[in-house]
Structure formats: C-alpha cells, structure tokens
From TrEMBL:
The lineage of its organism: Eukaryota, Viridiplantae, Streptophyta, Embryophyta, Tracheophyta. The keyword GTP-binding does not apply. One of its GO terms (biological process) is response to wounding. Belongs to the protease inhibitor I13 (potato type I serine protease inhibitor) family. It comes from Acorus calamus. Gene3D superfamilies: Trypsin Inhibitor V, subunit A (3.30.10.10). Keywords: Protease inhibitor, Serine protease inhibitor. GO terms for molecular function: serine-type endopeptidase inhibitor activity. The keyword Ribonucleoprotein does not apply. PROSITE patterns: POTATO_INHIBITOR (PS00285). This is Subtilisin inhibitor 1.
Length: 75
C-alpha cells in the first residue's frame, strides 16, 4: 500500500539512468513499468535520429553488445 501511495505522488519519469548497462529488452521491461503505453526505438550508438519530439516514444541507444549506452529519455 505504501508503494502505491509513493508512486501516485511521484512525478512522472522522463529519463531512466538506472537502465544503463542493461540489455535493450531488460530496459524496455523496466520502462514499461513506469510508462505503460510506450513506443520504443532501439538505436545503435552513433546513429542519427530525427529531432521531432513524441511524448510516447523512448529511444534506447545501445552499444555493439546490445547494452544500453546512455540514459533513455522520452521524446
């Protein structure tokens, strides 16, 4: 019950630094717990992306080992 109250009063997250080093799949599972409906875009490190902002999109940048290389963010 205390967890539910804490999560209800917490501001919505827009960044997940705690998933850096996890696989893309593990990161997606953790982020889904916070966001619910979300569209993921897994991007290899160094690739270019568009600059448009989408509130239901989270980009996950990965290194060659499929590990998250920087904190995923909404946008």
């Amino acid at each position: 019950m205390a967890d539910q109250k804490a999560s209800a009063t917490r501001a919505p997250k827009n960044e997940w630094p705690e998933v850096v080093g996890l696989t893309a799949e593990e990161a997606q599972n953790r982020i889904k717990q916070d966001m619910g409906v979300v569209h993921f875009q897994v991007v290899p490190q160094g690739n270019y992306v568009t600059m448009d902002h989408r509130p239901q999109r989270v980009r996950i940048f990965i290194d060659p080992d499929n590990k998250v290389s920087r904190p995923p963010r909404i946008g």
